[in-house]
Every structure is written in structure tokens, then in C-alpha cells.
Design a protein that fits this description.
Length: 66
């Protein structure tokens, strides 16, 4: 079954991050995701959009602004 829902491990691999970093970003609300039964899940389209927004911002995250 092909789905656009990704696990924390899959999104970490997709973004070339460690699982721990992906989890921290999700928990801080910096990575768009949601929990199902206590486990993080992500829509691939949301992650792709998140990437595009950061590209337009030049890599800056709004949370990094003073």
C-alpha cells in the first residue's frame, strides 16, 4: 500500500536527519506532524511544503528570529 503518511524514521531519512533530531523538531512544533496513539506521523505533502517555505526564507526558521 502506497501512502503519503510517514513515520518519524521515514521523515528523518527523507530529510537526512537523525531520528532524535526529527523527533525534537516535531515536538517543538517546527516540523509539521501529528500524533496517532502517541506516535508521530507526517504527511509527505506537508513536509515538502515545509521544505519549500524554508527555501524561500533562505533556510531561516521563524522561530530563529529575534
Amino acid at each position: 500500500m502506497d501512502t503519503d503518511i510517514m513515520t518519524i524514521r521515514e521523515v528523518a531519512e527523507y530529510l537526512k536527519l537523525t531520528d532524535k533530531t526529527a523527533y525534537r523538531l516535531a515536538a517543538e512544533g517546527k516540523l509539521p506532524g501529528f500524533k496517532v496513539g502517541g506516535a508521530w506521523r507526517f504527511r509527505k505533502g506537508d513536509i515538502d511544503e515545509w521544505i519549500e517555505v524554508r527555501k524561500r526564507q533562505g533556510g531561516k526558521n521563524e522561530a530563529d528570529q529575534p
